[in-house]
Amino acid sequence: MQLFSGQKYLNLAMLLLLLLTIAGLQHLTTNASFLAYFDQKDPLFAEYQRLQENFTSRERLLVVVQRKDGGSLLEADGFYRQSRDLHKQLEGLPEVVRVRGFLTALKLKSNIFLSPRARTALDGSFISADSSTALIVLDVALQNRKSARQILAFNGQVTALVDAAYSDDIAGYLSGTMALNNAYIDTVRHDLKYFIPVLLGIMFGLLWWSFRRFAIPLMLMGVGTLSTLAAFGTISWMGYSVTAINAFTPIIIIGLSLVTAMHNVLSFYQARAEGKSAEQAVKDSFQMNLKPLTLSCLTTAVGFLALLFSPSPPVMVTGIAAAVGLGVSYLLTISWLQAGLRRFAPPAEVAAGCMARLNVSRLSCGGQKRVVSAAVLLLLLGGWGLTQLTVDDNVYEYFPEDYSFRQSVNIIDKELSGASGISYVISAGEGRAFAPADLETLDAFTGWLKAQPEVLKVVPGSGALKQPDSWTRLVEEQLYNPDTHMLKLRVRMPQQSARAMIAFDDRVRQWVEENPGTLNIYTGGSADLMFAHLSISNARSMLLSLLVALFAISLFIGFMFRGWRLMTLVFICNFAPLILAYGLLGISGGAITLGSAVVMGMIIGIIVDDSLHILFKYRRYRRSEPEAAALQRLWTDVIPAVFISSLTMILALTVGLLSDFKPIFEISLFSIVIIFIALLADMYLLPGLLKMRFFQRHFR
Question: Region 542-555: what's the mean pLDDT?
Answer without folding.
Answer: 79
